[in-house]
Design brief:
Elements lengths: L7 H4 L2 E2 L6 E2 L7 E2 L6 E2 L5 H9 L1 H7 L6 H4 L6 H20 L5 H18 L5 H16 L6 H17 L3 H22 L8 H15 L10
Antiparallel strand pairs: 1-2, 3-4
Helix pairs in contact: 5-6, 6-7, 7-8, 8-9, 8-10, 9-10
Length: 223
């Protein structure tokens, strides 16, 4: 009978119906080894799992009034369920951030960007989700929480985009300078180290500068 088209943003977060642990990363769950058939443990450290177990009430409170969790999050998933799935994932990531796990703040920022995207489809105000995402990405940049240089470039781009989207242009411009400075430092390093790859920083810097040049366009964030 053919196929059904779905928006993967609605489905990407998996949720345990018992403890409400939620993540879009299958490695966060216990999985089966396809060769041996044995269990592959979660990549989440034991101390974080312990805190997650202690905080189950926090996750249940978020779904207060929802009696049948499996039914609520079934596929195809409604937009309300998709938003709550990312909020559950954010509760997990906040615990990871408390334990100072790499990329935890990075994940939080992008979970709230996903929520903003869904709110836009619902024709609702995305600004609160944008502000939440911006707060986490700023903290991520400040604390160098993201793994890898490319992730850092992407974070700077998103910070500039969010400031522009929220109309705070004076706060956006210094981050273009920060990315330009990183580019200059890498360029200097490349003179003596042939392994330095300038392509990624150049790509993200160009994107950021184009975004800034187009900041007055009324249709910049439409579509």
């Amino acid at each position: 009978m053919g196929h059904r088209t779905v928006d993967y943003d609605f489905l990407s977060v998996s949720i345990c119906p018992r403890c409400l642990f939620a993540s879009p990363d299958r490695k966060d769950f216990v999985n089966k080894n396809r060769i041996s058939g044995g269990n592959v443990p979660s990549q989440i450290p034991p101390n974080v799992i312990l805190t997650l177990q202690e905080k189950i009430g926090e996750r249940k409170a978020l779904l207060e009034g929802i009696v049948n969790v499996e039914e609520f999050f079934k596929r195809p998933r409604k937009s309300e369920a998709a938003i709550l799935s990312y909020k559950l994932a954010a509760l997990r990531a906040r615990i990871e951030a408390f334990h100072e796990l790499p990329n935890s703040l990075y994940k939080l920022g992008f979970y709230y960007l996903k929520i903003a995207k869904i709110l836009k489809k619902r024709k609702e105000d995305e600004a609160p989700a944008f502000k939440e995402a911006l707060e986490y990405l700023l903290e991520c940049f400040k604390n160098s929480n993201a793994s890898g240089e490319v992730a850092e470039y992407r974070i700077i781009y998103c910070i500039v985009a969010l400031y522009v989207r929220l109309g705070e242009l004076k706060k956006a411009h210094p981050y273009i300078g920060a990315l330009d400075k990183i580019r200059g430092e890498l360029n200097a390093k490349s003179k003596t180290d042939p392994k330095v790859n300038m392509a990624f920083v150049d790509n993200w810097l160009n994107k950021t500068k184009i975004l800034w040049e187009d900041r007055e366009r009324e249709d910049l964030f439409k579509g």
